[in-house]
Amino acid sequence: MEATESYLESVRKQFLYYKMLGEKTMNQLEPEQLFVAINEDTNSIATIIKHISGNMLSRWTDFLTSDGEKEWRNRDAEFENDLQSKEEVLEVWNKGWDVFINTLNSLKAEQLSDIIYIRNEGHTVIEAINRQLAHYPYHVGQIVFYAKQLKNSDWESLSIPKNKSGNYNAEKFAKEKEIKNFTDDELKRLK
Q1: Which residues are CB-contacts of 103 (< 8 A; sequence separation ≥ 6)?
Q2: CA-closest candidate to residue 49, choices 97, 18, 82, 93
Q3: What pLDDT band is residue 188 in, cutting at 50, 70 and 90?
C-alpha cells in the first residue's frame, strides 16, 4: 500500500475511534447531563456537539469545490444551545459525522495534494484533514473530561483503566510484533 493510501486509511480509523469515544461517553450520561454548563463561559456537552457538527457540515460539504467556511454557517449560533433532548443531540452529532465520514471516504490518494480553502486560506487536502484531526479530538476530549466530572465515581474507563497500565502493557508485549493501526484493537475493545 502506498503512503497516501496508508495515510487515508489511518486517518479514517482515527476519526472513527474519536467518534466512538464521544458516543461511548454520551452513553454513560443521563440525558439531562448533556445540557449542564457550569458557568456562562462553559459549554455544555450538547453545545460542544452542536459546534463540532456545524464545523463538519461547513468544512466537508462540497469539500473540494467550495470554501470550508460556508456562507450559511452561523458559527456563533452553534454556541447557543437550543437542543432539548438526547435524541436531538445524537441527531446533530450523526448529521455532522455522516457528512464528514462520507466525504473522507470519497477522497482518493491523488487528491491529497489538491488545494482547498477555509476562509480564503489555501490548504492541501492533507493539511485540511490534519487540521480537523486536531480539532475534533480536542472537542471529544472536552466531552470526555466534562462527562467524567458529571458522572463522578460511576465512570467506565474508555482507555487504559487507572492502575491497569502494567496489565495492559504485559498483554501487548506478550504478542508478536505487528504493523497495524492502534485503533484496530481499541475499536474492538470499546464496542
Answers
A1: 60, 61, 63
A2: 93
A3: low
